[in-house]
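User: quick one, fold this
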Amino acid sequence: MWLWQLVLAVGFGIGSAVVPILNAEAYVLGVGVTNTLDPMVAAIGVAVGQTIGKVAMFLAVRYRPGYAARKTKEPKPVDLDTRWGRFVQWNRDLSKRLLDAMSHSRWGMPVTLLSSFVGIPPLYGVALIGGASRMKTVVFTLAVLAGRLGRFVLLAAGVGLF
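Assistant:
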């Protein structure tokens, strides 16, 4: 009986990882409150599903068509005398710093783990930025799985107390 519950939870987790309107936390809480499914099985399934979905996003960014060709091109010069030009340059500098931070072994894994457990910064964005960085896929996967498991198991345990 727990197998179909796990499959259902993994499916919902994959969907909620890609479509932000599907709330995985609400799913785990709803399952626990209504006692329709085992909340721990649902928490583990949603965590695994979310990890699968986020890794798919990570890999989609990393292996998108034309990505290697775009890396070698120099960006178009901007006019720093205009407000728009200064904004574009600021955005480029910020993006480069974020990619460098996610690529660094000291910051990439902790930021991903914090994002997957707490939600700040949003994991959706971290998955996209991580895919564009030099972060290893295995490191990203393990950090997301650990953070999501911790988050959803604590939610399920909290609901199980009531």
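User: anything notable?
Assistant: The chain has a mean pLDDT of 88.
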